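Data availability (excerpt). The following record was deposited with the supplementary files.
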Amino acid sequence: MDKVFIKTFGCQSNYGDSETLAGLLYNKGFQIVNDLNEANLVIVNSCGVKGITQNRVLSFVNSISKTKKVYVGGCLTSMINIEKYCKDITGHFNTNSIIKFSDILKEKEKIKIYSREKESRILKPVIRKDQELAIINISQGCLNNCSFCSTKLSRGILKSYEVKDIVKAVEDAVNSGCKKVYLSSQDNGCYGLDIGTNLPSLLKEIVKIPGNFEVRVGMGNPRFLPRFLDELIEVYKNDKVMKFLHIPIQSGSNKILKEMKRGNTVEDFIKIIKVFRKEIPGMSIATDIIIGYPTETEEDFQETLKLIDDIKPEVLNISKYGKRLGTFAAGLKQLPSQEIKRRSLILTKKYKEIRKILFNLAD
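Predicted structure:
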């Protein structure tokens, strides 16, 4: 019996995909192990959102592929020629081929599967890393076309799962002992817009499920939230919904947001946060900033600093811009790396000061 170790890089959606892949393979007769040394077959669920992550993936794959059978899936395989960088791998597949891969793994050793048609992976068997935590992907792909984002190249256009199927997946998770449910996707904010529903409508059905559990809503871009903001806030007041909102702004400059093709303004973002905090005391806000987008001037950066100082997010994810192959922004003249680093250090210092204020942290 093949012993399979699954190594996951990247976002919560990737972890959810890995748990589904583990469940599918277990049902096919494979043994899923948690120790790399026990495995004779390794599946790497990759991520290519950042250059540093890509390097970590490639380093891991090359460190083991001479002694074990290694298959690489995930987003990175659609962004680069994986065989060019990892010459000893046994096979590879893309994000639309997880079910197909698990179906033929016993029949073939050398595997290369790339499908353009999205699979429906809701309600498939899962093996969870944490028996009290269910990661449930509610959709695949998104509706944005951000100029810096390589994930869209892999995940493609939005495909939402039906409300009834997601509700059934949550019910099954709760009945199996899960106390926390993470609703994940590339962008929860656009969930359902392709099938005539939306995020609040989904949450309203989920909170009706009996049981002692809490739902955490994953990242939602500010572009779509204003369409149903009042409904979303109302359902967020339910005790079963974690008072946490991850809403990435990426820049405090409207000029940069337009050039990033984000589809929203700084004012949209501020309004969403102000209304949430007014209606739900104790609300925790998380946001993301990309430092050093190619066209970001010092003035643009100062606007970002001011925005973060004004809203004081409880969680701030800071990323230094790095060009990703195939994106529009990769073709622009890049800022010097030292300047990007300088701006990143300034924003990081600002956030540390904010945390001291918010959480009464000592020096």
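Summary of structural features: Residues 3-113 form a domain with the Rossmann fold fold (CATH 3.40.50.12160).
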